[in-house]
User: Fold these one by one.
Assistant:
Number 1:
Amino acid sequence: MTSDLQTKTKFYKLPIDIASRRDLPAGTKIILAVIADRIGENDSCWPGSRTLANDTGLSRLTVLEGIKKLETKGIIQVERQPNGKVNHYRLVTKSGKETIPVKKLYRYRNSTAGGIETIPQAVKKLYHNQIDQLNQTNTLRQNSNEFRLAELLLNLILERKSDFKKPNLQTWVIHIERMIRLDKRTPERIEAVMRWVQQDSFWQNNILSTAKFREKFDQLELKMTKGNQNGDRNSKVGTSGARPNPTARPGEFVR
């Protein structure tokens, strides 16, 4: 009997940024969870207010008030249908000026009912900010690439200026973590550009933090690549700029 009950049990889960909001009553959050669970491949759903009341255990009036609050806060869009038909609901989250449609929020059933469901890519993007917050409060491991690269930049600077004011290294680590996770830079690329920067007479004194390094990374990498190409050409021509004369005697150059 217990196993049958567990199999039929369904759980709803809200994103942390919604669950932690103090401007939304608990009942409104439950309504949002139920609506999100019902959203299908067409990015919308249309449960009636009585259906939502039954699913949430709230009164119909509370459901209607909750929907209005969610709409006012910009968390859902409500498409009101004519002729007394049920409304269509669309879940949205705002990132800057963009409105990102979300097919489904995190939803899962327990292991007896098939385990965790696949999470759409759109939802994953919504959690980047939450990961940032976790990284700010939980120190990254000292043997991670992020920590190693942040420490590398600091050591390269210290080699040139031993009394350089030491930063909060964990803050530096966060910017490296974002470069790898969000900007899709590989640790190898980051290290190569970082070492080049601290050897360049101009950039070495302008890139003194991982935040500035991340901001200028594309420009720095292009400069490094161009410099390497010029170096290759110079190595073929020679430092004097002279080039071989194909019609001259061996060892003779023209300028």
Number 2:
Amino acid sequence: MPCGGSGRLISNLGGSPKDIACPWCAGTGTRQAGIDAQAAWRERAEAENAAAEPGRAEGEDPAAEPDPEEAAAGAPSEPSGAPGEAPAA
């Protein structure tokens, strides 16, 4: 456990050192079963990212790729034939 049983640790998150309660033991000095020590930071980062992108819907993945079928539906079709060849009349 990062706190060594003291229940406190030094966090450099944000650039400057801070004394905080250990996220793995919640400050008790005894590891808590089933705790996700990274959840609070992950949720805070997601909320900050959502606030910074007002046009993005909540829960939408900004890195998600567009559906190729949807993209193809609006794209103009290419003429048949070999490249550089005029379309058949």
Number 3:
Amino acid sequence: MSRMISMLAAGVLALLVAVTAWAATTVDYGKITSVNLVTQRSSGAQTGGAILGGLLGAASASNRAVGTVGGMVAGQQIGRMSSRRQAFEYTVRVAGRPNVRIVTDEAGLRVGDCVAVERGNFNNLRLVDDGRCAPNVTATPSAVEEANACMTAKEQLLAATTDEEFNRAERRMRLLCID
């Protein structure tokens, strides 16, 4: 009997977490007013490159101190180059609110496109028909469900621990988050 109660409690807790996450998701519609190409940097790649380069330099050099420093510098530079990636910064005019700026690697959206701005645990832009950008249009329950499915897919991608889980979660995220 206590096992059944604990299973029921776990189910209720999971439901509460899901409802809380879904309740926090909002969907607004707006037109893209500008698109800028930006460079994103990851400092973790530079640090990792420096550490790996230092280890390789120490292992391969006859003078370990010189090899370590040289390897660290080379590794940091390689990390710096690999940590840069191109992304797009979209500015969206949402009626009655300040402009929204979202940086994403999703290409293909243009100035004047009507998009759904989905915000929750993550942010997402989704191309929608121009009628959604008319005055006083609010998100339908199905639009919020789509946004929630996208947020859940992104959470599953981050939680993946094996290559198989990651590949499946990435495919799911691409299907659910991109128009």
